[in-house]
Amino acid sequence: MRCVVFLAGLLACLALSSGQRASAQSSDYTTLTSPESAQHWNLTLGAGLRYQPDYSGSNNYVFRPRPIISLGKGVKSTWWVAEDDALSIGFFSGKGWRIGFSGNLLWERKASTNPALVAVPDTKFGFEAGGFAEFYPASWLRARVDLRRGFVAHDALVAELKLDAIARVGQWSFGAGPRMSIVGADYLRTYFGSYPGVAGTGGLLQRFNAGVHSYGAIAQATYNWSERLSTTTYIEYKRLVGDAAKAPIVKTYGSRDSITLGISASYAFDLGF
After folding, report:
1. Are 57 and 75 in contact (CB under 8 A)?
2. Residue 33 resides in a domain
3. Which segment of the chain is annotated as a signal peptide (predicted)?
4. Long-range contacts made by residues 251-256, C-beta under 8 angstroms, separation at least 24?
């Protein structure tokens, strides 16, 4: 709860400070981009390192690498990129909006790698594919919605709702905002269902219903070494709710609250067309 209060306070501060600059910058989002760079396709590649739960709902933390891949018109500084954004390819954009492809890889999960998973079935390697839409009501505010469907690992719909307040100070960029995810029943069954009669489950919930899966917030700070090279550090808080929070793998063996810390570096390559 303290983390939520901290991030909420940071979001309010960013909104106030950014709002003061908005009148000086102009409400026209095109002022944030250069017409020439906005016409070229750019491929952003990078890598990051996260300290995060071993799996969703786990109270064991591990270090995990994270690839960064994004394709779209305009260099990375053209659009705000949050560290928890899915793989994105922006196909269409205009003044203050962008829509495109959203994808996510789903890694397999086995009890052989973590004994705490003995109570749940193994999960397969898979992916999610769909689309995203993001809007900039003001130069300092981004709203984004992702909607994807799972393949191989699960076949449910997954929706992510994000709101970010953005502040740019010299070569630094700061962002923070709330998060919410909504998932289908098969997603919950796949990642939070347990074998019947497993010791310690106490007959807890085995039926899952689609609905709000988690809420939380993220705060990040990015240093832009150039228009194309940047490094970022961030903190993310997430709280599982609904049926996932009642599942034995979370309620009995794990935790519904989690913190993720991370660092990353990325570079935007101009593809020349």
Report:
1. no
2. no
3. 1-24
4. 251/204, 252/200, 252/201, 252/202, 252/204, 253/116, 253/119, 253/200, 254/53, 254/57, 254/58, 254/59, 254/116, 255/53, 255/57, 255/58, 255/59, 256/57
Q: What is the CATH number of the domain that holds 134?
A: 2.40.160
- Are 49 and 263 contacting, i.e. CB atoms less than 8 angstroms apart? yes
Q: Rounded to whole angstroms, how far apart are CA atoms 27 and 18?
A: 12
User: Cα separation of 210 and 213, whole Å?
Assistant: 8
* Residue 191 within a domain: yes
Which of 239, 250, 183, 244 minimizes the C-alpha distance to 216? Answer: 239
Under 8 Å between Cβ of 245 and 255: no
Residue 140's closest CA among 231, 221, 23, 223? 23
Q: Which residues contact 240 (CB under 8 A, 6 or more apart)?
A: 56, 57, 213, 214, 250, 256, 257
Which uninterrupted H or E stretch holds 23?
helix 2-25
Residue bearing tokens 């100070």? 169
Span 42-61, pLDDT tens digits: 899 999 999 999 999 999 99
pLDDT (tens digit per residue) in 77-113: 578 999 999 999 999 888 889 999 999 999 999 888 8
Residue 211 — left, alpha, or beta (φ > 0 → left; ψ -120 to 50 → alpha)? left
DSSP element (H, E) containing 126: strand 126-138
Task: Determine the Cα–Cα distance for residues 118 and 161; give it in Å rounded to an integer.
Answer: 32
